[in-house]
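Duplicate of #3305? Posting structure anyway:
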């Protein structure tokens, strides 16, 4: 059966835009400043969809002209916000890109995208083809049929919900055609379809379950009371609404069906298009499997190689502690090989090569290679350079993305899990461009950072990952019962406050309860996001309960249940540390992310009870840098007042409050200290007066005065800030104390909001990046000390400014002062660094 792909272009491009639009004009853009956030997200989605091997495609778009519905009802879609210019610019680019992909974008004046899709779905059904429709618009659910599925976008454009007849019946209890009747009864605010005033989704669904159609509802004689009055009063609106809500499936299309046949990708022009708009990570996705004469062999063993080889190991999924290993790419610059992992384990000749000290091994992603080899008892010696790490230091925007990294060297790798040639190609490209990467590191004065911090850190992180963190599953199970009981109680309280039963997890149903039934005045978009709800906490008690419900639901799904999926047979979680992800140089953690275990509230912090020492004779020991970023700021700005305060252990937040408020430090209240703390850390992140006013719930004028007085108290910081921003404008980049480099193209952008973001990045990166480098250096030196002194203590976790250890009880009093000394003296500032240590039977 042939397959047809139908996409609601306007709906998905809008969703792609708002899913990646962070407000204030800040978004992904090309070097020329052309917004590309919707274009990029939409391209990613289309690329994934094309892997399903469709035969025909049509991407339907609305026009900016009135449709036949506007002629029937002048207020149709009235009140909609104007489309932002940043999005309007991207629509022509989306259509150009689709054509280069071999797809068929189409619009027709007088008709909506829904009608074009409806007509194509009907024609496809008549031909007996399978149809997949993709949209964020529930109107299209009326088109569902035996061979027509509608895929609704749930989260931005990254998650999809497949709606079939059965799924629709299960969710709403109605058939596809009853979607039209549903809208005719309850209306549709987004399209300004009136429906019957006072009837919401719950009542409309009950009426349809009882009477089947709008017509039957209108003629029913057993409906009484106020409901009957509403139906009689607004019956004409309902009839008109049904007409407006019905998708027209006989659009006079101006093309033949075969025009929608998916064509061969215009590879060169598509790649040039991606390059033009600086979307280089997409290039390899569309590159054909064989774009050159690259030769390789799949082998069972390897013997004859040069004295320098390149290796690349890959896995099915991200967590290489859990997933099947695909294989290893090997190159000596002339010969290129792929050896699958099952063969590698028994490849006696090649295992000797790996163990040979005289053969240098370079690689892509050294940590993954070492972890997997060690987990499988494969010995490897003399592993030197890692081109992923090198390229990340040269340009931190490449992150840990294989495509972005090789795009930097104008190479493209098509990753296909069914064709492992890419393993050999990555190894070949690694060796080919290694000298270029080394030269670039030298030119940019990054060799010391690479050789003395990042490269040694690989081995430290490798050991931490392999050691893992033991987790008591029974604690998580107890918390699950406790929190689910609490969640159920909150759910009942919410339903009592609402006066009806509804799906608390549905944003649309929450919006209906809050803004329609309870009459709470919300925002224009009827958003029920957490930031919007927090603004309404004092308006109605139900709001606080909904926030609490979300908190417990998140804790249960993300931690209580989610963490259990990562506990391996040894009873431990082996998280993966990302060394090449953040642009500030900070480490991050994934599968699972152990750096986001909440400590903001008791419930989130309780999860830490489940993280325990590896045995009953051990402790969990934690050392945390105290106010490291403020100390770095004081040093970088050479603020004598702050440096002196830190050296004499004066409370920095009380000091700031005293100076700003012109008080004696002993007179500062706890509230004033908290406000000063927000300012101190806000300055590090380049907080604006508006941001401070939002944070402290004061007026922007008061916030500006607060910031002005802060800079009067610490004039060196103002001088440092101004100097950093001006230098960044000239050079286009900033550096940390250890010379880490970050380009800040936003600093000279034409758009004011983007320019302001660039200033914040320029101010924050040297501070946060230096703090990140300090703790990395501390990790290396602590690890070295533990091994040199043959301690059994293991470093098992790093969370921003904190190091966590698993310590035998008999080593505790020996290692604590040694770790403290290393961390406090790891860098030679004219001011002491301070760490705070604590230990216990579990992480809590």
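Output from current build:
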């Amino acid at each position: 059966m042939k397959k047809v792909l139908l996409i609601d272009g306007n709906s998905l491009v809008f969703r792609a835009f708002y899913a990646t639009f962070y407000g204030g004009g800040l978004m992904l853009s090309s070097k020329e400043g052309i917004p590309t956030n919707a274009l990029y997200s939409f391209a990613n989605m289309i690329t994934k969809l094309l892997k399903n091997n469709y035969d025909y495609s049509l991407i339907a778009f609305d026009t900016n002209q009135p449709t036949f519905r506007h002629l029937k009802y002048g207020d149709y879609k009235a009140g909609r916000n104007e489309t932002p210019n940043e999005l309007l610019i991207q629509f022509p680019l989306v259509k150009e890109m689709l054509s280069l992909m071999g797809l068929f974008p189409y619009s027709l004046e007088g008709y909506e995208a829904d009608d074009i899709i409806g007509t194509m779905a009907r024609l496809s059904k008549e031909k007996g083809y399978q149809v997949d429709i993709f949209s964020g618009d529930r109107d299209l659910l009326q088109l569902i049929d035996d061979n027509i599925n509608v895929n609704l976008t749930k989260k931005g454009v990254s998650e999809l919900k497949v709606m079939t007849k059965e799924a629709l019946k299960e969710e709403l209890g109605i058939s596809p055609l009853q979607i039209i009747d549903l809208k005719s009864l309850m209306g549709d605010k987004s399209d300004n379809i009136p429906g019957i005033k006072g009837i919401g989704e719950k009542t409309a669904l009950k009426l349809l379950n009882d009477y089947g159609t709008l017509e039957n509802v209108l003629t029913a004689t057993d409906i009484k009371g106020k409901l009957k009055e509403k139906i009689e009063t607004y019956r004409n609106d309902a009839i008109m609404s049904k007409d407006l809500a019905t998708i027209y499936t006989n659009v006079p299309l101006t093309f033949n069906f075969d025009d929608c046949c998916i064509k061969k990708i215009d590879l060169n022009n598509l790649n040039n298009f991606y390059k033009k708009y600086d979307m280089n990570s997409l290039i390899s996705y569309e590159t054909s499997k064989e774009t050159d004469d690259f030769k390789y062999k799949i082998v069972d063993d390897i013997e004859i190689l040069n004295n320098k080889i390149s290796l690349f190991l890959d896995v099915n999924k991200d967590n290489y502690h859990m997933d099947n290993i695909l294989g290893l790419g090997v190159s000596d610059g002339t010969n290129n090989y792929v050896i699958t992992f099952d063969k590698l384990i028994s490849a006696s000749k090649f295992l000797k090569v790996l163990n040979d000290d005289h053969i240098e091994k370079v690689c892509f992603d050294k940590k993954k290679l070492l972890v997997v080899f060690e987990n499988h008892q494969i010995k490897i010696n003399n592993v030197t350079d890692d081109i992923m790490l090198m390229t990340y230091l040269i340009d931190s925007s490449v992150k840990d993305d294989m495509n972005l990294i090789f795009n930097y060297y104008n190479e493209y790798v098509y990753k296909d899990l069914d064709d492992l040639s890419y393993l050999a190609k990555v190894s070949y490209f690694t060796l080919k461009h290694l000298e270029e990467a080394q030269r670039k590191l030298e030119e940019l004065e990054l060799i010391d950072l690479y050789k003395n911090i990042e490269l040694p850190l690989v081995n430290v992180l490798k050991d931490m990952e392999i050691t893992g963190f033991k987790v008591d599953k029974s604690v998580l199970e107890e918390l699950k019962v406790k929190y689910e009981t609490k969640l159920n109680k909150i759910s009942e309280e919410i339903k009592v406050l609402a006066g009806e039963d509804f799906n608390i997890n549905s944003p649309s149903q929450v919006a209906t309860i809050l803004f329609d039934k309870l009459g709470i005045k919300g925002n224009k978009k009827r958003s029920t996001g957490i930031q919007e709800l927090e603004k309404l906490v004092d308006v109605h008690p139900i709001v606080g309960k909904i926030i609490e419900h979300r908190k417990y639901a998140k804790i249960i799904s993300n931690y209580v249940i989610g963490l259990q999926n990562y506990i391996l047979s040894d009873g431990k979680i082996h998280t993966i540390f990302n060394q090449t992800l953040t642009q500030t140089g900070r480490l991050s953690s994934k599968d699972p992310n152990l750096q986001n275990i909440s400590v903001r509230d008791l419930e989130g912090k309780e999860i830490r009870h489940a993280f325990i020492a590896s045995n009953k004779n051990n402790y969990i020991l934690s050392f945390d840098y105290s106010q490291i970023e403020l100390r770095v700021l004081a040093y970088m700005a050479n603020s004598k007042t702050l440096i002196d305060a830190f050296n004499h252990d004066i409370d920095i937040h009380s000091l700031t409050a005293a100076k700003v408020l012109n008080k004696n430090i002993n007179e500062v209240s706890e509230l004033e200290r908290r406000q000063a703390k927000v300012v101190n850390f806000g300055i590090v992140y380049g907080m604006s007066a508006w941001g401070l006013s939002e944070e402290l719930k004061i007026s922007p004028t008061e916030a500006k005065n607060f910031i002005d007085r802060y800079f009067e108290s610490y004039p060196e910081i103002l001088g440092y800030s101004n100097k950093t921003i001006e230098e960044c404008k000239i050079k286009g980049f900033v550096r940390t104390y250890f010379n880490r480099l970050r380009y800040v193209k936003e600093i000279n952008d034409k758009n004011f909001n983007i320019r302001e973001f660039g200033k914040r990045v320029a101010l924050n990166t040297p501070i946060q990046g230096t703090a990140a480098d300090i703790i990395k250096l501390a990790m290396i030196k602590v690890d070295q000390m533990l091994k040199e002194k043959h301690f059994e203590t293991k470093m098992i976790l790093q969370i921003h400014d904190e190091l966590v250890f698993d310590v035998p009880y008999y080593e505790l009093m020996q290692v604590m002062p040694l770790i403290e000394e290393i961390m406090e003296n790891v860098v030679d500032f004219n001011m002491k660094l301070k760490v705070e240590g604590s230990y216990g039977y579990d992480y809590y």
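Confirmed duplicate; merging threads. The chain has 34 helices and 23 strands. Residues 285-291 have pLDDT under 50 and may be disordered.
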